Amino acid sequence: MRGMPTFRQMEYFLMAANCGSFRVAAERLHMTQPPLSRQIKELENILGGPLFTRSKAGVQLTKRGIAFYKEVPLLRDQFLEIQKKMDAFSLGEKSNWHIGFTSVLSPNIFNQIRKFLTDKLGSDAVSFTYGYSKKLSDLVSKKKLDLAIIGTPSPIPEFDYKLLHLATERMYVAISKSHILSSKEEISLIDLKNEHLFWFQRNENKEYYDKCEYYFLSRGFNMKRKQDPGDNHILLSLISAGEGFSIVPHSITLNERSNLAYIPLIEKESEELNIKIQMIYRSDIDFTHENLINDIHRAHASINN
């Protein structure tokens, strides 16, 4: 047995046949001609004879080549259909996915990733929980969620887990456009020392809270505090009304409002206060589902850029 043609060889063969030239085919495939010629030669060896006649004018199909050319589209379509079924098997082996999504991020990003997953898996095959990172990590540890997108630093219970980094969020100040500082291109917290900061409670995320408070203390940032309402929609409404400001990650800036300005924190302060967006999942997750994890990674990257 001489072996089986590869999908790549069939693609190369079709391109060469359609172009009538190995040189032009190689250019369209973004490769050099020698590797293309080698793949065609291997294909000819597998099929037992020449597929092309070569001349200075280009290449033409032999009778064997014409016969194969008629069969390749069907073979290619069958291969793609098999590949599609295997992808569906990898994702669908588990009938239902339960996925958590941190409320730190914009609902816009959550909605876009939710649409991506429901389009891919079907609306009945995936459910979502939206909440604080601490709660989501706890649900993953108890196997009530399969995976979650969380903001770190964040408290994570003791269990065997893995983290996949998605993004590091630059930090911004959300402030009313009516504020005198709203037109600044960058801002330092020292500029806001006399303003009210909407701030979350320590029990919501003590790791991030302590990190920020230590930095505030070390730099002499002693802003007055107001309790964060715990809902981004309400928070941004209060800020738009001029009742204070908040420190928010980049993704929140996708929530545009007529009287709301987002100003980047100066780089040094942003680096100290930034939030890392990560996917957490149990180490024992079945890696036939790795495609799903990678898909979420790519979806988040494309949305957040």
TrEMBL record:
Segments forming domain HTH lysR-type: 5-62
Keywords tagged on the record: DNA-binding, Transcription, Transcription regulation
Gene3D superfamilies: Periplasmic binding protein-like II (3.40.190.10), Winged helix-like DNA-binding domain superfamily/Winged helix DNA-binding domain (1.10.10.10)
Transmembrane portions of the chain: none
GO molecular function: DNA binding; DNA-binding transcription factor activity
Coiled-coil portions: none
One cellular component (GO) term of this entry: protein-DNA complex
Keyword tRNA-binding attributed: no
A Pfam entry, by short name: LysR_substrate
InterPro entries: LysR_HTH_N, LysR_subst-bd, WH-like_DNA-bd_sf, WH_DNA-bd_sf
Family: Belongs to the LysR transcriptional regulatory family.
Protein name (Swiss-Prot/TrEMBL): DNA-binding transcriptional LysR family regulator
Record organism: Xenorhabdus doucetiae
